[in-house]
Amino acid sequence: MPIQGPPQVPLTPAVFAILLSLAEGEKHGYLIMKDARAPEGGGVRLGPGTLYGSLDRMMHGRLVVESGMSDDKRRRYYKLTALGRRTLAAEVNRLDAAVQTARSLGVLPHRSRS
Amino acid sequence: MTPDRLERIYAFALRLYPEPFRVNYAPAMLQTLRDARADGSLARGALTRLIVADLVTSLAKEHLSMLRDTFGRPALLFNAFVLAGISTILALALYAIPQQVLRQGANDPQIEMVTNLAVHLNKYGVSDGLRQGALTTYGSATVDMANSLSPFLIVYDDEGRALGSTAQLDGQTPTPPAGVFDYVRSHGQERVSWQPRNNVRIAAVVERISGAQPGFVLAGRSLREVEAREGQVLKMAGVAWFGMLGLILLGTIAFGWFTRPKTA
């Protein structure tokens, strides 16, 4: 993952789901897992190992930072960086373009956009 | 599986993660499991399956990542490649230097024989010199080129036709390629590895005879024993090379391990 420069996409499903979850605000591990599992959050079944492994690599890539810890130091909170937000936006745009193509090809039904 | 047991097993399994990762994240991972259990949105069986599958995949992933961080560092790999390059050059030298010494040494008796015979034939002429028995004076009795290790002598006229020989190969006196005589005409002497037929290789020294009846003197000797020794040298150099590469590999692994990053 880049330290600086333009966002690197495509993302893995796990990284995308974590970024999407954190777009709402800072969260600890289980809340991210729960968001990711929901269909609207990416529908990714993350376990603790995959979650913290991904978060560790995303911190090295400057996509997220650790923002705090619970008093008992067992819950760790994370939030998006500016690069993380730009990367998420780039990935959403990429997916959006793919969805539009799928619609134009008749793979998905057309929807009116408001 | 009861929740407590799942938690105990998971806490134990967390010890399998690489140390830096475990130190950083094990308490948070255990807490995540407790939060999931407390939340209850995932059925117990589904949670257990998720945890087991996650353990398998993330353990493999984190250990691979640890190996990459430990041994995939550019400086470590660069040093290993430089050392491997140096050891390769050393091993090549270990082979090439003795091989050249052996090969050049294989010419020694022939140089003496060819020089002596050429001086004699230059002095008395080729026909008179051969009539006087110069070949047997400077060479041995008839040599079977295919089997004998003894040196031999052959005298050729200026066209490359054999005039006299102490060697036979399959009942005939062989002749080296014409290019050898052309070279000797202009340079005076040539030292070559000559293969008159398959599996017969000869260390040959050819010298020019000048004067009224010009020609060539060839002294040769089988390379069989020399090439066998060259083969032994090659084996020893190969063993030394693999040994050095093995030491470099072990050293790189040990150095990489002792200088590995301490935090994830």
From TrEMBL, chain B:
Per UniProt, the keywords (alphabetical) are: Membrane, Transmembrane, Transmembrane helix
Membrane-spanning residues: 76-97, 239-258
User: Could you name the domain of life of the organism this protein comes from?
Assistant: Bacteria
Protein name, per record: Uncharacterized protein
From which source organism is this entry?
Candidatus Sulfuritelmatomonas gaucii
